[in-house]
Amino acid sequence: MTKLNQFCNECDSKDTPDCKEASCLVGYGKKVIRFALQKGVMDIPGAHNLIPKNDFKPYYPEALGGALAETCNQRRECRDNHSQDCVISLVRNALESAVLQEPIDYPGSVFMYLAKIKEQNSELAEALAKALKS
Cα separation of 55 and 21, whole Å? Predict the structure, then answer.
């Protein structure tokens, strides 16, 4: 959540009437995490259909790298119970959709995930690799 809060702190719309969490990719991620913590769940059925599709704010790969690294580090919490409605997948998919043309299914390893990202956006893959190393 820390990385997502950093996006909000740097957003020009923060604390203005233009800040609408429901239509913001980062706001959606934060909302999903809060809901999961409040309800004590890791899966929110149907939530993948609610990822905002009309958030056209500029998101930069170098900023997204750290947030995606955080989701990669959390994957172990899913164990074998991952689904497209897993909280971690929801946040990851929302962040990916900010800069990628096609959604990526997490292939089970960070290395393979990096390779899939690199096929679509080498800048994002580089930023993610850098964030994972630190």
Answer: 10
Residue 94 contacts residue 52 (beta carbons within 8 Å): yes
Stated length of the chain: 134
Average of pLDDT values for 77-96? Answer: 79
Would you list the DSSP string of 42-81?
A: SB-TTGGGGS-S---S---HHHHHHHHHHHHHHGGGTTT-
The identity of residue 109, as a single letter, is S
State whether residue 11 is helix, strand or coil: coil
44, 85 contact by CB (below 8 A)? yes
pTM over 0.70: yes
Cα–Cα distance measured from residue 63 to residue 7, given in angstroms and rounded to the nearest whole number: 8
DSSP state of 105: -
Closest CA to 74 of 110, 22, 38, 107: 110
Digit-coded pLDDT (tens) for 23-58: 999 999 999 999 999 999 989 999 999 999 889 888
